[in-house]
Amino acid sequence: MNKIKYIIPIILALYFVFPLYIIVLIAFSPAKYTIETLYQPLIFKGFTLNNLIFAFTQYDFIGPFFKSLAVATLVGVLAVIIGIPAGYGLSRLPDRVAYPALVLLLITNMVPGLIVAIPISAEFIRLGLFDSIPGLAFVQELITLPLATFILRGTFSAVPREVEYQAKIDGASSLKYFMDILIPVASAGIAAAFLISWMFSWDEFTYAIILSPIHPTLPIEIYVNITRGNLLAAVAFALVFTLPVIVLTLFLQKYLRGEYLTGGVKA
Amino acid sequence: MIQLDDITKRYGSKVILNGVTEKIETGEFFVILGPSGAGKSTLLKVFAGIEKLDKGKIIVDGKDITNLPPEKRNVAMVFQNYALYPNMSVYDNIAFPLKVRRLSKNKIDEKVRNVAKLLGISDILNMNVTKISGGQQQRVAIARAIVREPSFYLLDEPLSNLDARVRFVARGELKRIQKELNGTFIYVTHDQKEAMSLADRVAVLHNGNFEQVGKPMDLYEFPKTRWIGEFIGDFPMNFLPGKELGLEEGIEIGFRPEWIKEGGELKGTVESVEVLGENVYAFCTVKDYRITILVRKTVDVGDEITFGVTKFRKFRDGKLLE
C-alpha cells in the first residue's frame, strides 16, 4: 500500500509534465532530430539555441507577448479591485441571500464563450473597444470576476465579524479597518484571486481570437504559427509562454493551498 | 453613571430586549448574567453601538449616546474570541486604538509598555498574536481595551475560552485590574459562579428584561422569582408546596441544599449522589418532587433520608413574598 501511495502521484506527475518536456525537447534540439525525422527520439541528441534565435528574430514575438501581459495584468487587477468590495459585501450578507447571488454570478461561466463573444464583438466595434487591451480584459472579466468574487467572499467570511466590530469600537473608520486590517488579513485570498484571474486570461483563447484578431495575444500567435506549419516558432513561443506561469506560481505558491477557498485566515 | 432607559430590541417579530431599565454606577463591576440565548450579547452590542435600538435611550454621564456610532462612543470591549487583529503583533494590537486617535509615537510607546507591564505581557510584545497561548491572547485583548481611558468597558465572556485553572487566575486578575483602574466594567456571562465572584452587582437577564438586580449574596439568599432561584447556585433551589410544611394553600417554599438539618419531618429516597470535596449532595425524591440536599455522611442510591428544612423563602405564583 505504502508504495502505491508514491507510485500513483509520480505517474500522474509524469503524465502532466510530459508535454512540457516535449516542448523543451523540440525547442532545444536541432530540427533534424525532431520535426524533420519520421521517428523522433524522446531524448536529447543534440543541443542548439538556433531554434529560439530564429523564432525570435524572424517573427513578431514581442508584440503578442506584451499584449498578453497587459491584458492578463489588467484582468487580474480589475478582478481584485472589483472583487474585493463584491466579496466583502457578499460575506456580510446572510447565506440565503449570498448563495443565490453567487450562483447568479457564476452563470456567465456556464454560457459557452462563443455565444457571448460574437454579439459582444459587434458592440465593441461600435464602442471602439474591438482589438484593444481594455476591451479584451473586460470580456475575460466575465469569467474571472465571478471566480475572484467567490474566492474573496470565502476569505472575508473567514474573518470573524467581531474583528470588524472591535476595530470600530477602537475608533477606526470603515476605510481604516479595510486598509489596516481586512486587506492585510485577506492577502492570501487576494493573491489567489489575482493569480487565478491572471492565469485564466494568460491562456484564454476563444474571446481573444474573436475580439482581438488583428493584434493577437500570445496563445493566438502560437496557434497561428502552428496552423501555418511554423512548428519551431510555435514551440519557442510556447516555451516562453509557460515561463511566467511557472514563475508566478512558484512566487505565490504559499498562497495556493486549497484553503484559500475557505480563507486561509487564522484569527 | 450609565442610564439605560427602556432598551428595546427586536429581530423581526422576536423581542430580544424588552424595555431594560437600569442605572450603572461609575466604578462598578456590573455583571449581566443569563442563560445562552437570553440576549446578553445583544445588550452588549447595544452598549457598543453595533446594534441599533428599536426604542429606548442610553445616557452616559448625562450625555445621550443612543445614536452615536461605535467609533464615537469611547467604549472599550473584549470579545469572547478576543477579536485580535491577526495581521499585527501584540504591540501593534495594543497600540491600534491609540494610533487611530493620532497620539504621538512616544506617548503610544509609553502607554503600551505601561499596560503590558500591568498585565505581565512585556516579553511577548513583538510576537504575532496568532502565535501566543489563549491566556496570553486574553491578556492582549484586555490590554488593548484598557490602554486608552474609555468611559466604560464591555466584556463578553472573556474567560470562557480559557481552561479551568487559567480561568480561575484570570478572574482574580480581572477584578484587581478593575479596582486599580476604578473603571466601570459591564461583564456578560452565563456562568453564575463567575458572576458571583466578580460582581459588585449582578443583573439576571431573562425574557428580555432584568428579572433581578442585586448583590451576589442577595440573589442567592432572596431570589425574586422561582426561575432565579433555580438558575442561581451550583444546584437549583428546591421547591415544595407549602402544605408539606403545614403552610397555607397556594404558597411554595424554596430552600437551598444546605438550608436543612438531618432528621425531620420530610422523607426522601436518594436517586443519585454527587461528591464535591467534603460535601456530598444527594438528589432525592420527596413525594413527587425532586430535591437536592447537602448531607454530611456518605449515602447510597436507594437510601431513605429524613431531613428538616431550617431556612426557607415563601413564593406565590413563582414570585418571592415579603
TrEMBL record, chain A:
Coiled coil: none annotated. It is found in: Cell membrane. The chain crosses the membrane at residues 6-30, 68-90, 97-121, 133-156, 177-199, 205-224, 231-252. Keywords: Cell membrane, Membrane, Sugar transport, Transmembrane, Transmembrane helix, Transport. It comes from Candidatus Acidianus copahuensis. PANTHER family: MALTOSE TRANSPORT SYSTEM PERMEASE-RELATED, MALTOSE_MALTODEXTRIN TRANSPORT SYSTEM PERMEASE PROTEIN MALG. Gene3D superfamilies: MetI-like. One of its GO terms (biological process) is transmembrane transport. It comes from the Archaea. Residues 65-252 form the ABC transmembrane type-1 domain. The lineage of its organism: Archaea, Thermoproteota, Thermoprotei, Sulfolobales, Sulfolobaceae. One of its GO terms (cellular component) is plasma membrane. This is Sugar ABC transporter permease. Belongs to the binding-protein-dependent transport system permease family. MalFG subfamily. It is a multi-pass membrane protein. InterPro entries: BP-dep_ABC_trans_perm, MetI-like, MetI-like_sf.
From TrEMBL, chain B:
One of its GO terms (cellular component) is ATP-binding cassette (ABC) transporter complex, substrate-binding subunit-containing. GO terms for biological process: carbohydrate transport. Transmembrane segments: none annotated. The keyword RNA-binding does not apply. Keywords: ATP-binding, Cell membrane, Membrane, Nucleotide-binding, Translocase, Transport. The keyword Transport applies. One of its GO terms (molecular function) is ATP hydrolysis activity. Pfam families: ABC_tran (PF00005). PROSITE patterns: ABC_TRANSPORTER_1 (PS00211), ABC_TRANSPORTER_2 (PS50893). Residues 2-232 form the ABC transporter domain. PANTHER family: MALTODEXTRIN IMPORT ATP-BINDING PROTEIN MSMX, TREHALOSE IMPORT ATP-BINDING PROTEIN SUGC. This is Sugar ABC transporter ATP-binding protein. It comes from Candidatus Acidianus copahuensis.
